[in-house]
């Protein structure tokens, strides 16, 4: 991370802010390096290269939070940023009703990096292009068994480095290399079209593309799109069982468990943007799901897209058991919310760049695995539908009313997978979904996603995932 | 270094490398923000940044890059590194920059210096919004006021040069009442004098109070009266579909619809590069082409796509001044006004729903335009021309072409909208639409 000079500036900014009257101060020097390449229907798009570097200073003064940031790293500019953050906080006391106090979490002194085998900095144009050309060669010209007139493929290699210091003694150096893929495929057949947005990504170096079998995955998705267009039938009506595949388990865990259990949402801090939560400050211990409902968030998973072992408040992160045996077990906490709840931060605070404040974020959110094999779980279903992948989805801002429209979905009859069904809709309340969990497989998969939150918006890389999850007694919706 | 100096240095470095084309865009922004929740400030911030973006073309190879490391030595190295990175690139679609140089001057009239540094005033403005919401019946409020300026400077190897600037201030406030009730208010302006936190707060407070007895509607098809806030969210997707890049990528429901009817005859959609009152945009696009006024939909007919130089060549058209080096995009959208008042529109409804805010619009298929969105805050059932009760817990679903082809009335009052769910500033009326699907969750 940067130079000793940059670190000295961060240390100096904290001292400067404290001397100016801040009761707490932190500084984060953060750099981003990114290379990206894209193909649109096989045609190379202009390559993209970005580098960003700057400092953000956050303080508590007169009980209020102030934040200032700049990419002018001259000593005078950084000093002014520190003073500005203090002045802003002090000036806002006229509309301060709930002073901000941080908990006494142990200040981390750590140097961490996401493991990489092939350095991310070696991602030149030829490498990026090579990855996409291989994918293109598998899916263009009907090679995946379906016409794909719309193919938009992007790959990026990114490195984020940070140096973090606060007035409680934390000193953290972090390095996160990441490879990300985004693809939009549009398939047509007989006047009908289907669309799939694919996101894949892990922390690590250039080995990531092979490790996750990127080309094979995209090819597999394309083949399925053809089958969906050619063979899918109407989904069943009435009350049936639903099996959520890992992708659906993951998005449901993220949207209807992870988000409502962000303590800042529970306290109303995101009320004007991403909304609040159906859960309240006293909801810990509430039974919300069946005994089989178990959902966690774990920032310590190696290779994961949301790997953050130490957060951006200098707190060592740990796995969070969000729902345990159907009971709300804990919220995602930063130091301010933890103090309000009388708990300790569990290290959930993240900022995506130097010019953004750290806020509570999910990392890798998933349904915990169960005991069944996938085949055993399917055999439990007399009449139902397996939702394997989804397209359209959304949820209300209290996280009670969610909808997932499947792309790849199969009818299940008498414990066996039958043919594809067309665009079944799961539109369901959160208590009904998690209260209907009857069983989980032990087969786990994770998907990369970008979680949006904050104002200005911060898109944070995460994983969502889980096993096959069996829901009993569900009525499907319709478009 | 000032922005002009920055772009000159970048272009000099590019010319030394004998590129075929180069564009340097320098941008400097300063944004002040105050956020609040439960009637209490949660953060005040000031972010000042500068960035240099460079486009290079050489032997039909193209690359774009941006950097925030702006020391003279760093800029030179940045351009050289970008040039070096092009060696591994294949040749691609390439359109030379226009040979005729253009000159642009700042639009001083639309730049309000009072918004350049509003740090001292933000707490008072937030307090005014909060007090207004409480007076109107909201129990507590959350929101954000953002104010700032952006200066942009351009220089190209073909001699196009100029600069522009804009200022904007926005308030997004939600007020909350009993029984999970909530209301929403916005105020969006390019000048401080046009900013009205009191009215936005009052709307949020009134909405919260009016929603305290809300119940879930029956699923079915309804007439729906979309507020400017909701309509702008959907209109932004229409404009996205009008980008020629989206059409080429297979993600536009407007593909193969040029010259065809895609909306009701009363629906008109225009994009302005620079327009009085507009919160976004500038006089030139990323390729140095003059931004102007582009009629996207006129009388319900799709008149044109948004183009940069590359998409324009493919479509045997001209750049519409909408670059994005990669993807053309809108700057300031305007939906044509109608002749109805809000009250007249409600009276026109037999069995309908008024939606004042929404979020989380997601598409099943951009090629077909099928989507759903989640209403939030004030929502009201209208029966025989009168609001009969408030509604919650629903979802609206449709396809964009069907929805905008079912527009029955547009209001004569319009508002500028830009907030968390609407990135492109949009001047938009109330829009009355027939036959929108409303669904509820199971359980």
Described by the principal axes of the CA atoms, the overall outline of chain B is: globular
Please work out how many helical segments of chain B DSSP would assign. 9
Structural domains of chain B: how many = 2
Largest sheet of chain B: 7 strands, mixed
Assembly state: heterodimer
**What would the principal axes of the Cα set say about the shape of chain A?**
globular
The number of helical segments of chain A is 10
Estimated structural class of chain B = alpha+beta
Mean pLDDT reading of chain B: 96
Number of domains of chain A: 3
Q: Report Rg of chain B.
A: 23 Å
Biggest interface reads: A-B, 93 and 93 residues
| Distance, first to last CA of chain B | 61 Å
What is the number of strand segments of chain A? 25
Low-confidence stretches of chain A: none
Q: Tell me the β content of chain A.
A: 35-45%
Q: How many DSSP E strands of chain B?
A: 18
Task: Furnish the topology, listing elements before pairings.
The complex is a heterodimer of chains A (479) and B (443).
Chain A: H1 4-19, E1 24-40, E2 43-44, E3 47-61, E4 64-70, H2 75-91, E5 109-113, H3 125-139, E6 147-166, E7 171-189, E8 192-203, H4 208-211, H5 214-231, E9 239-244, H6 246-258, H7 263-266, E10 295-297, E11 320-324, E12 327-328, H8 335-341, E13 349-350, E14 359-360, E15 364-367, H9 374-379, E16 383-387, E17 390-395, E18 401-406, E19 409-413, E20 416-420, E21 425-429, H10 430-435, E22 437-440, E23 445-453, E24 458-466, E25 469-475
Parallel strand pairs in A: 5-7, 9-16, 15-24
Antiparallel strand pairs in A: 1-2, 1-3, 1-6, 3-4, 6-7, 7-8, 9-25, 10-11, 10-15, 11-12, 13-14, 16-19, 17-18, 18-21, 19-20, 22-25, 23-24
Helix pairs in contact in A: 1-2, 3-5
Chain B: H1 3-16, E1 21-37, E2 40-58, E3 61-67, H2 72-85, E4 103-104, H3 122-135, E5 140-156, E6 161-176, E7 182-189, H4 197-210, E8 220-226, H5 228-241, H6 244-249, E9 269-272, E10 293-298, E11 301-302, H7 309-314, E12 332-335, H8 342-348, E13 351-365, E14 370-383, E15 386-390, E16 395-399, H9 400-405, E17 407-419, E18 422-439
